[in-house]
Amino acid sequence: MSQLAGRVRAACACAIGLLAAPWSHAMDIPRGWQPSALFAQAGAGQQVASAAFGAWWDWNWHYDTSHARITGATEVLIGDWRASEPGDHFTQVGVTPVLRLHPSAWDAGWFLEAGIGANAITPRYENRGKRFSSDFQFGDHLGVGRRFGRAMGHEVVLRIEHFSNCGLHEPNPGENFVQLRYLRRF
Fold first, then answer.
1. What would you report as the CA-atom Rg of the chain, rounded to the nearest whole angstrom?
2. Domains parsed from the chain with CATH numbers
3. What is the DSSP annotation of 102-126?
């Protein structure tokens, strides 16, 4: 598992280096399609590790209450899962709408988030005798995070995410991850 952890750390270090440069503004991407941020994420489950990179689009929407502000975004990611068996790896492609709650009573920058999205994981995931019955999986997560730095352009989020097909096919063993994400806004 230490070799696997080393690969995940190396992938995250490379991703953070890429995220440090706001490359989306340098590319000829139409204005409406430019992401608000890019992110790198590392995670671990039971004898499985993951690394992912993605883009984040803030919604032009918010809802204010007397105690909090709610905002939303869409994230798109591509990731790699490494199972405990040597050489077993799986590709994840996902899209998730995310809601964030910014409580008024908390210091500026802190937030809670939740999302449920669609993921394709291929080849079909199998690890420790656990086998998904389809490539399609829902990913639902809860997280707590903090924005910081100049113009609040950096974020760190600790998330718990569960993948399963919601009983659409059997067996439906699911897989859980604890994830750490770094997000860089432009």
1. 17
2. 2-185 (2.40.160.20)
3. EETTSPTTEEEEEEEEEEEEESPPE
Q: Are 156 and 180 in contact (CB under 8 A)?
A: yes
The greatest distance separating any two alpha carbons of the chain, rounded to the nearest whole angstrom, comes to 52
> CA-CA distance, 7 to 2, in Å (whole number)?
9
How far are the Cα atoms of 17, 84, 100, 134 from residue 148, in angstroms, in the given order?
18, 35, 16, 39
Between CA 96 and CA 98, with CA 97 as vertex, the angle to 5 degrees is 110
* Bridge partners (DSSP) listed for residue 9: none
Q: Tens digit of pLDDT for each residue in 51-60?
A: 999 999 999 9
Lowest mean pLDDT among 9-18, 39-48, 73-82, 84-93: 9-18
Local confidence band at 4 (pLDDT 50, 70, 90 cut-offs): very low
In the chain, count of helices (H) and strands (E)?
Answer: 2, 10
Look at residues 167, 163, 166, 109 and name the one whose alpha carbon lies nearest to residue 139. Answer: 163
Distance CA(24)–CA(37), nearest Å, equals 9
Q: How far apart are CA 130 and CA 114, in angstroms?
A: 26
Task: Determine the Cα–Cα distance for residues 162 and 45; give it in Å rounded to an integer.
Answer: 10
Contact 157, 125 (CB under 8 A): no
